[in-house]
Amino acid sequence: MPRSVLLVLYALLVACQTTSSTSPTSWPAQAGADSPDVVQPAPGAYYPKPPRDYAAYRTWRWQQEPTGSAHYSAAQVRDAVTAELERLGLRERHDASADLTVWAELFQTSRLQQVVEPYGGSQGFAPHVGAFGGGWNAMPRVYAYRRNILVLNLELRDSDDGQAVWRGHGESPVDGADRTRLYQAARRALSGFPP
């Protein structure tokens, strides 16, 4: 028995030492870099694109006039976005030499919001027992109501290559035509810019 095991192991060892098609010595010679068979990668294909220099962006212009909603006109949306971009140090230009183009969309939607009011409970708490007593009217009351929400979507694009530099949206509850809600939505839409 031990002799047959040794013979099998010896046969496996000899089989491992022979050259196979996967060993480097049996591979064909590689074509040189100047050979037409070799496809050369494009320059810079191995490296990721350099990060954007957000400090170079100093001016902006509208890609198209922003849209208004039932409560806010397009001029009010334009004023809110302009004020927020100026707060960030970006100045508006009306010609094509601006660094960024800005697109804005304003719409109103409704959301379902739930409020839970817990009632009942216990009369006391003991260290090794936990809560005890009570339990009257232990079911919480759940109220659901709809809220009107103002949503402002913004997109900033590089004027040179047309790539999106920033996308954001800001939300604010609607209270009639209160302009501060629109300014809050614009501030929230640009809250992380520049990243």
From TrEMBL:
Ranges for domain DUF4136: 52-195
Gene3D superfamilies, sorted: 3.30.160.670
Region (Disordered): 20-43
PROSITE patterns: PROKAR_LIPOPROTEIN
Name of one Pfam family that matches: DUF4136
Keywords from the UniProt entry: Signal
Signal peptide: 1-20
Top-level taxonomic group: Bacteria
Protein known as: DUF4136 domain-containing protein
